[in-house]
Here is the input.
Amino acid sequence: MIVAATPDAVARAAAHIRAGGVVAFPTETVYGLGADATNALAVARLFEIKHRPSFDPLIVHVSASEELPALVTAIPPAVHELAARFWPGPLTVILPKTERIPDIVTAGLPSVAVRVPDHPVALELIRRAARPIAAPSANRFGYVSPTAAAHVAEQLGHRVEIILDGGSCRVGIESTVVSFLAEPPQLLRAGGITLEDLEAVIGRVAIPTARQPGVAPGQLDRHYAPHTPVDLVESPAAVPERDRCGAALLLVQPTAYPPGFARVEVLAEDGELRRAAANLFAALRRLDAGGFTRIYAVAIPERGLGRAIMDRLQRAAA
Ligand code: TXA
Ligand code: MG
Here is the structure.
């Protein structure tokens, strides 16, 4: 059930988490499906509700960087620097885990992913529960991530007792995931904090090229995918005229396009990538519900937030 995230409702949700329950809650990136990260049984239910394969590890959410030492064995200086600069915020770090985190959370890996979300409801929920909260995005596995409470209800409403409504997510795409298990650190998922921002603080961050097994589990090629087929094209004109009829065109920024498309969506009329990111998943859901033959998404340069937007479009199209 969707409930407004009043202090009372957050307190009830926190009690539910302490009792081993599962709660959907807003973060600045996307809605999460949370359970007590120290309760293996609660986390098992979470995997089940989401239909998530057990080889895909979860992110553990804490309310402040002071909670990190209990969860990881050592914190390199670069993580301190990033935490000071970007937490609370859309950055997840991967470090060797302590015993406090059960194996099910990390899918058996000796490392754990941790972040401090930048949303008052998420922070209050964690503080009230007085537990680290393990939370994947609150969608069915493989589908587009939810950026509004209604998106969660559509897919998981019948399986989640409490969906805290905190409005639309400000960032709209998931956190950036950086692993500190290697030197230099590795960018495992592009997200709300850009590679350029990271490198300005800690220097070079490597981008693993080949899919290295065990390095980025869960980084499946096809993910964030609507049911309608998605094609990534270089320009609107690249879509042959006969294929435009019945198809939707998805533009990140205003771009000239030829006639014939059944619908055209522009993610950011002002060309701002932040706005485009915030609108991306809702637009994919909307188009998916529109009964189009195909969604043609037009590629953008992989710079700044463009890298994360392109990553999501590529996975939707895979
Ligand atoms: O913005 C976000 O990160 C959202 C909100 C709810 O916080 N959460 C989210 O969770 O996107 P999820 O489960 O959809 O994505 C977690 C990603 C996956 O790609 C997973 O493979 C990776 O983090 N991950 C988690 N633990 C890992 C680990 N120990 N090693 C490598 N990758 C890990
Ligand atoms: Mg997800």
Q: What stands out?
A: The mean pLDDT is 95.
